């Protein structure tokens, strides 16, 4: 899928947000500056967040809850995590039960079972502008994804 610019990325995030619910994991992969946080911001805005969501790079986990958003969300940036064991200390498994997890740099989790049913989105810049999205739809997502 091709997204022409930041606006298209935000709009895709908004469309995706309509399909998200607590317990979902969205794994956002791509190089620095690829658009992972922009896509997460589109999702968060559509879930009701007023203003621009900060990047969770420093905090690692940024929590949102009603009434700020319509569901509980944990926006996670694992860029600074060097070892999957470090991520275990974040309590992501506990959050996965009742939060939507938006995980940037999911590869830092290693072979975590948390990612087994995740909707994976790989974002890459396209020569000439825009972004290319490659989606990995787990079986649980097939009924929710538009044909």
TrEMBL record:
Pfam families linked to this entry: TsaE (PF02367)
Subcellular location: Cytoplasm
Molecular function in Gene Ontology: ATP binding; metal ion binding; transferase activity
Principal location class: cytoplasm
UniProt keyword annotations, A-Z: ATP-binding, Cytoplasm, Magnesium, Metal-binding, Nucleotide-binding, Transferase, tRNA processing
GO biological process: tRNA threonylcarbamoyladenosine modification
Membrane-spanning segments: none
One GO CC term on file: cytoplasm
Source superkingdom: Bacteria
UniProt family annotation: Belongs to the TsaE family.
Name listed for the protein in its UniProt record: tRNA threonylcarbamoyladenosine biosynthesis protein TsaE
Organism: Sphingomonas changnyeongensis
Gene: tsaE
